[in-house]
Amino acid sequence: MTTGYVTLPIPGGIAPDGSGTVNIAATPEVMISSGTQTTNSPKVTRIWLLMDPTTDEAWMWSFTLPGDYASGGTIRATFSTKGTSANGITLKGAAAIQVTGTTDSDAAVFDTVVTANGTPSTTQGIQTQITLALTMTNAAANRPCVLMLGRDPDNASDTNANDLCLQEATFEYTTT
To answer: Number of folded domains in the chain?
Structure first.
């Protein structure tokens, strides 16, 4: 058994639709490097997802659990902030697993929402990682899965007044 990985593309995935409570989508933003470009190359440009310091915002990814999925489920999120505060950040995540043939996919709900805290670098743009160990009820190889990752700014541990910039995310699991 080893660790398997599913890349959760940024901004790929699905934005929450804005209905109900805490269904606000993170905002995709184009980041252009401030570094001096090298000869005959463009400036480094990438997209990240901004998550507000005062409003719960999230993003979702839908995929089929890999055929070698055995157990577990962790989201590894790589982020920075748009500021230099070392105050804490709280992320939240959850999974929804569809048991094919028995689960009505248009009535799916997320399992237990888990949170994890991290402290960003005081240098703007330096990346930090947070891992969230998910509750994965009914998870099995080749089952449809939706993951949610968001910022939880109303958590007492999230005291950072800057936007979070989600740069990368992976889903990690134990293989067969």
So the answer is: 1
